[in-house]
Amino acid sequence: MRVDQRLDGYQRRHRWLGVPIAVIYKFFDDQGVYLGVLVTHYAFLSIFPLLLISSSVLGFVLRGNPELQDRILASALRQFPVIGQQLGRPEGLRGSTAAIVVGTIGTIYGALGVSLAVQNAMNIAWAVPRNQRPNPIQIRLRGARLLATVGVAFAATTVLSALSNRVGSFGWGLGVLAKVAVVLLAMTLNAGTFSLVMRMATTRDVTLREAAPGAIAAAVVWQLLQVGGAAYIRVVIDDANTTNGIFALVLGLIAWLYLGSASFILCAEINVVLAEHLYPRALLTPFSERVNLTGGDRAAYASYAGAQQHKAYEKVETTFDNDGQYGPSSAPPASPPDVPPPTAAGQPAETRPPVEPVDN
What we know:
The chain is mainly alpha-helical. The chain has a domain of 230 residues. 66% of the residues lie in helices and 0% in strands. α2 packs across α10, α3 crosses α10 and α6 packs across α7. The longest helix has 35 residues. The protein is globular. It starts with a helix and ends in a 54-residue tail after the last helix. This is Ribonuclease BN.
């Protein structure tokens, strides 16, 4: 038996290895890389106008309390560590009427684009037939509701971030415990937010139990991205000159957004693989035609075909001709040779040609 066959058999028998492989294969089957790029594009367009609007609104509302304004803005910018330090400087953002108008237009365009891209990614991941996906008007209304949910969660996370800045006053011991509690509470809130997004962004009826694994994984990844973004600032941006710092800021933000978008889609694929039992997969199925498909392979490929149904009266069927001829372990037994029945002596009977009747 070849090495690849041994590895294939091992991952098919062990769920701890078969499920991650199936999630990765599903991610690339759905072209998750390009879905993440699309989300990143609209997120990049919406972040700067969103922060501009936030700064402008705070400038008008809290005009008489600049200290509170700076504190709230700093807490919000901590959610975006790559650009938070730059935009949080005194000269970074300043409010005005023109800034609010321009920022509102840019934010609406970018944010709706993010919501549409996320809904498209979730419907592709769950292989929702095209005729069951929302129309151009419905998808934008659903996107607005999705954005409202994310906005409330973002505001709550900002409040937690502001609280974490004040826990040091409790003393060293209580301060550490309080910071850990705030981080865990923020991760729990983020997990709940991701769970809502994963359920609301698709027309498939996704239960809370089905969305929980991916939401928890996404919350952990989001926390790691915030830590990694802060480290990127300390190592790269702070030591760069003005010109290099601008490029490092923009490229770092794009990379940070892409990692977040792609990770979110990958975590959503965890839910799909577990809920639809799309595992184990054949180890070489992305690389070769000469593989014996598993039940997970057949279910995944059938769902991809069914997702292309455009009308309710259109019928899509999937059949597979491969019945195990590409592997000795699962090949059907060979049929016995066509041997005449034995005679009494145990020898095959002599085969004679049939006698033709003679006409008298």
